Structures are given as structure tokens and as C-alpha cells.
């Protein structure tokens, strides 16, 4: 009986490990695909105002799909204040915004080509 119990436990452990490993691999692939899609999901916008003293930018923008937000004009915090040095009012941009600490923050911005 002891040998059978040991074999059964060994098989169960192997199956459980293999299942967990397969699930982890599947999640990694899904996360990777989501990250890939997220990085290409930039929003079109136009710079209306820049306030370097508060590290904020006012953008007139299209729909921000990852935040389920319709197009509008609004003020955003900016993650990298140095990016404000490369922009001016009237510039057409592509940007990415995310929720962070209860605020919507521009995490990436570039002049549209």
C-alpha cells in the first residue's frame, strides 16, 4: 500500500506541477500580447498648453481606448517632465495615458509624423 500511495502522490504532484507550469506559460504569452498591443495603442492629440511649473500638459485628444475615455480637451500630468521641453502649443502628437495614483498621467508622448 505504501508504494502505491507514494506513486499516486508522485503522479499527482507531477500533474499539478505540469498544469501550473502550462498555466504560467499561457499567462505569460497573454501578458506579452497585451503589452504589445498596448504599446501600439497611441492616441492622437494636439497640444493646447504646456505648464512646466506643474509638469502638466493640456491636450485636445481623440478617444483614449485603454481608459475608455471619449475625445475631449483636458489637462494631464506628465510622467517625464523633460518631454515638455520638446513640445509647444499647436503641435500634433501621439500619446499614451494611464491611470496612476488616482490621476491620469501621460506616460509617453511624441510629435506625430
Offer a quick outline of the entry.
The chain has two domains: 1-40; 43-111, Beta Barrel (OB fold (Dihydrolipoamide Acetyltransferase, E2P)), CATH 2.40.50.320.
SSE layout and pairing:
Blueprint: H1 2-40, E1 43-51, E2 56-61, E3 72-78, E4 92-100, E5 103-111
Parallel strand pairs: 3-5
Antiparallel strand pairs: 1-2, 1-4, 2-3, 4-5
SSE succession: HEEEEE
> Over the alpha carbons, how many angstroms does the gyration radius reach?
23 Å
Low-pLDDT ranges: 14-39
Query: Strand percentage, roughly?
Result: 35-45%
CATH superfamily heading of the largest domain:
Copper binding periplasmic protein CusF
Order of adjacent strands in the largest pleated sheet? 1-2-3-5-4
- Overall pLDDT: 80
CATH architecture call of the largest domain: Beta Barrel
**Sheet having the most strands:** 5 strands, mixed, barrel
Q: What's the number of domains? A: 2
C-alpha end-to-end distance = 73 Å
> What gross morphology would you assign?
elongated
Structural class: alpha+beta
Amino acid at each position: 500500500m505504501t508504494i502505491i500511495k507514494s506513486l499516486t502522490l508522485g503522479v499527482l504532484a507531477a500533474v499539478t506541477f505540469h498544469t501550473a507550469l502550462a498555466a504560467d506559460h499561457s499567462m505569460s504569452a497573454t501578458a506579452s500580447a497585451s503589452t504589445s498591443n498596448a504599446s501600439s495603442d497611441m492616441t492622437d492629440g494636439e497640444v493646447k498648453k504646456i505648464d512646466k511649473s506643474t509638469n502638466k500638459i493640456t491636450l485636445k485628444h481623440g478617444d483614449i481606448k485603454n481608459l475608455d475615455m471619449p475625445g475631449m480637451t483636458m489637462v494631464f500630468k506628465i510622467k517625464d517632465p523633460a518631454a515638455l521641453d520638446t513640445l509647444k502649443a499647436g503641435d500634433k502628437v501621439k500619446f499614451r495615458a494611464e491611470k496612476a495614483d488616482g490621476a491620469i498621467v501621460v506616460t509617453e508622448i511624441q510629435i506625430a509624423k
